[in-house]
Amino acid sequence: MIKADAATPNAITALNRRDLFRASVAGVAGLAAIPEIASARLSTGFGFGVASGEPSATSVLLWTRYTAVQETALEWQVAADDSFSVIIAGGSVTAKPERDFCVKPVAEGLQPGTWYYYRFIDPAGAFSDVGRTRTLPAGAVDNFRLGVFSCSNLGFGYFNAYGHAAQQNAFDLILHLGDYFYEYADGRYPSASQKVAGRVSWPDTETVALADYRLRHASYRADPDLRRLTQLYPMILGWDDHESANDSWAGGAENHDDSEGDWSARKRAAIRAYREWLPVSDADYAEYEVGDLATLFRLETRLGARSEQFSVEKVLEGTTSTEDITASLDSFRNGAYVDPARSMLGSAQEDWLAAGLAASRKAGKIWQVLVQQVLVGKLASPDSLLEGLAAMAPEEFRSRLQAAALASKAGLPLNMDAWDGYPAARDRLLTSALDADANLLVLAGDTHNAWAFDLAHDGEPAGAEFGVQGVTSPGLETYLGMVPPDVMQKSLVGRNPELQWADTSQRGYMAVELTPQQASCEWRFVDSVKSRSTRLAATHRMVSAAGSNRVSNG
Fold first, then answer.
1. How many CA atoms lie within 13 A of 489 on its CB side?
2. pTM, full prediction
3. pLDDT for the residue numbered 399
4. Are 148 and 468 in contact (CB under 8 A)?
5. pLDDT digits (tens, 9 = 90+) for 211-258
6. How far is CA 246 from CA 236, 356, 446, 476, in A?
7. Which pairs count as long-range contacts for 328-335, CB under 8 Å and 24+ apart, including other chains?
8. Using an 8 Å Cβ cutoff, are 495 and 380 in contact?
9. Contact 453, 501 (CB under 8 A)
10. pLDDT tens digits for range 329-352
């Protein structure tokens, strides 16, 4: 049973894996590595643990999955203590096969800024794990602590970042910025040689149909570090591309073709499974108020209104000479690339965000925080470095490195899948922040690497951005391993005026703290993902002072 320390109400003492997962581990031991998961031949019960999310000052959404063969009525309880001596809220909910037996009741009438405990009960009187959650604060807030994660590929290794964050017991809320899981078939990403032994997800084919996505969610929830983290903290989650398919946009994805059926059907299946298996609402985007300190804006940048990504390779198709390549890149940069019709959010979400930023500042909130997926900061390839690498690279990589170097010289970005590929949309975003006089803090994932950017618009400071490294997904050290990390960091920062710091070779997560004076970020790098451990190899800290719209060393 979870014990609260009387002297420090936010703390959990005597916390160990055996006690915390005693009930649930017994129900799913080895789940991620057994074929039985594929046919759902699991024993009845709460084998997938509990989670909570979508907190407000007076409510929180609770989640569990009850493995059964027919509809089952469950009771849920919220209490002030983990012994459930005082029940604060409760009710009943039915686990139904059409929702894959997942349930998401919302506990209401709670007190702001308060830790609660919750559990589910089946008809036979069996209990789920005891979860812990917290409502958002109201009124004056001195600090608010966020654990920030992205890019959790089970095959690449252990979720040690989750384990470390759970062990720290130092957060008010967890944010997951996307790529919560990966859709690839076994042996694709990671390849067979990259895969860590014993890290198996199901199905072993690519996730395309609803049953596939549900099963992939189930295999990820079998991971004890993921389940432990979600048991201890409320969460806000937003999908990126891999929860559906790589480089997804409103009308398709790089990793989808006609042989896999209709994209809209696949997208609906991915969204449905995501909303069944995670403690999330059905709203595409939403805002969350943190007392007088901040407004968090969860954005949707993938499946609703995003225009298709550009490809430099396609721009250069048919070109043969350096002169032709340069002319094509210049024409593209001054034409299609800056088309104002291209969108990341769509007009409805853009208008909602602009109004929300203004309302947040008018209400006296200090920070306006974007909880979203891809980098806003401008990031171009270090062309001189890439030219040198191209001369030494194998033939299959040489043309790509040369194209990237030429694109950089032409003023085009490294990653067309980020906001960099949608410059008019980015201009609208930063204009709305400046018009609102926002203290804009952007949180981003997707790249697997760690970043700190000063965001600018027409030469005016417009915000600060912290980009989180992957939990396990590999970074530039995998693709450009011949370049020492310090050389890569120096080359990137030297090439990009907005970029103030980067780490492209380590995995982990961010610990972000908001206060009335500053937003601070500590990047925490785990020692390894190849074996299970919560040791850290290093940390790095930077801050953004309120009112500065810049980052600096902390």
1. 14
2. 0.92
3. 72
4. yes
5. 999 999 999 999 999 999 999 999 999 999 999 999 999 999 999 999
6. 22, 30, 11, 18
7. 329/406, 329/407, 329/410, 329/412, 330/410, 332/412, 333/410, 333/411, 333/412
8. yes
9. no
10. 999 999 999 999 999 999 999 999
Interatomic CA distance for residues 506 and 473, integer angstroms: 10
**3-state secondary structure (DSSP) of residue 107:** strand
Both tokens of 534, joined, read 């919560």
Q: Look up residue 282 and give its two tokens.
A: 């059905």
Cβ neighbors of 532 (< 8 A, separation 6 or more) are 158, 160, 163, 225
Tokens representing residue 545 in the block: 């002072």
**Taking Cα atoms as reference points, which of 70, 71, 72, 74 lies closest to residue 62?**
74
C-alpha to C-alpha distance for 3 and 35, rounded to whole angstroms = 36
Average pLDDT, the chain: 91
Number of DSSP helices (H) and strands (E) in the chain, helices first: 14, 26
d(CA 458, CA 461): 9
Q: In 54-211, which ranges are E strands?
A: 60-65, 72-79, 87-95, 102-103, 106-107, 115-121, 131-134, 144-149, 173-176
Element (H, E) at 406: helix 395-409
Q: Which residue has the tokens 């990009």?
A: 496
* Amino acid type, 121: I
115-121 vs 106-107, strand pairing mode: unpaired
Can you read off the two tokens belonging to residue 27? 């129900």
Residue 182's closest CA among 211, 204, 160?
Answer: 204
Side-chain half-sphere CA neighbours of 214 within 13 A: 19
Strands, E assignment, 291-383: 294-298, 367-371
Q: Where are the beta strands (DSSP E) in 339-382?
A: 367-371
Q: What would the 3-class secondary structure string for 40-87 be?
A: CCCCCECCCCEEEECCCCCCEEEEEECECCCCEEEEEEEECCCCCCCE
Confidence of residue 43 (pLDDT cuts 50, 70, 90): low
Paired tokens of 487: 């050389």
Could you give the CA distance from residue 158 to residue 198 in angstroms, rounded to a whole number? 10
- Per-residue pLDDT tens for 444-460? 999 999 999 999 999 99
Distance CA 449, CA 510 (A): 11
Give dist(CA 46, CA 28) in Å, integer: 9
Do 324 and 333 meet the contact criterion of CB atoms below 8 Å apart? Answer: no
Average pLDDT for residues 71-80, to the nearest whole number? 98
pLDDT tens digits, residue range 296-325? Answer: 999 999 999 999 999 988 999 888 888 898
State both tokens at 19: 């006690």
Write down how long the chain is: 554
